[in-house]
Amino acid sequence: MSKPAPSTYPINEVIAHRWSPRAFLDKPVEKEKILSFLEAARWAASSYGVQPWSYIIATKDDPENFAKLVSVLVPFNQSWAANAPVLLLSLAQTVNAEGKPNSHALHDTGAASAQLSIQAAALGLQAHQMSGFDAAEAKKVFALPEGVEAVAAIAVGYAGDPETLPDFLKERELAERGRKPLSEFVFTGKYGEVSPLVV
Amino acid sequence: MSKPAPSTYPINEVIAHRWSPRAFLDKPVEKEKILSFLEAARWAASSYGVQPWSYIIATKDDPENFAKLVSVLVPFNQSWAANAPVLLLSLAQTVNAEGKPNSHALHDTGAASAQLSIQAAALGLQAHQMSGFDAAEAKKVFALPEGVEAVAAIAVGYAGDPETLPDFLKERELAERGRKPLSEFVFTGKYGEVSPLVV
Predict the structure, then answer these.
(1) Which fold has domain B13-162?
(2) Which residue among A44, A54, A106 places its CB closest to the CB of B114?
(3) What is the CATH code for A13-160?
(4) Is the pTM here over 0.90, yes or no?
């Protein structure tokens, strides 16, 4: 199952092939591929180079730690993400060691997870990020210290057969991908003024 | 000038080649390349698919709008970024039309700008993001509506000759790239417990 972006302008193949499936093959992810997608996250850019992201990870063949990650998902996400071979939770250090807030911590964690997802796609995997999880519960379950917040859950694996999903999810899995056109979010001079570069 | 990440585990070449230079060639960026890196941002993942990011963009051959972007940078960033052929400001819609906060808006904007940066690298360009700008001033200059916040300034162009930079910046431009090892930010079971997958 592959679902490349129907892009208006040419984009790199790996970026185009990144998408967020809910059906995953019942196939473990090779350790070297896990290391590669984590390594890609590592090399993201960050404000003042502080690298505010971290990850909790577990594979399905580590049932105890995998179950802890499943436990913090909302029931809807549990229904499909528990079938992925790898689960992660991204974390952001939003307050540094001196008690100073880092207003770019969430932004930079988003960049790291985007690089993780693109590297996953480059390896034939896909990563599906979820905001649907209990952040307060995650804070307890994973003993997150002060100043570290749970940001997003991530399911990673090989995209599987949409037929394995319940009907309403199968429909979404097979639906065409879409995005706002550039003219709705690229401005010049002031907000809302469509850039001449995109018309 | 190229500065690939000295990665511990193999990563996609385009991700490895993305870095944040301060020296740019005095060479405009082709319009089709601008469209491609904006298109790559467009296809980022977002919570509930709301695509909370937008961009203000200007090229150097549009002096009035380019100067507006330069004007919101802190003086240190003005000193080098004003030489880039393209400047952008990423924006996040942190409050939706119904007045509901989107706690993932910054995160997802970070993902979009990461895709923008990787696509830039794929085209032989580089994007350098900056948190050093005046967000309150940007809000006025670009007439950002309630609920839309300026997130990061971005300089884009062809990486240039480090010799064109003042000495202290030349040193940084030529310094080796580095990141925390995976063992410092990839955990299993609880925060701080190094994952067996990365040792």
Answers:
(1) NADH Oxidase (3.40.109)
(2) A44
(3) 3.40.109.10
(4) yes
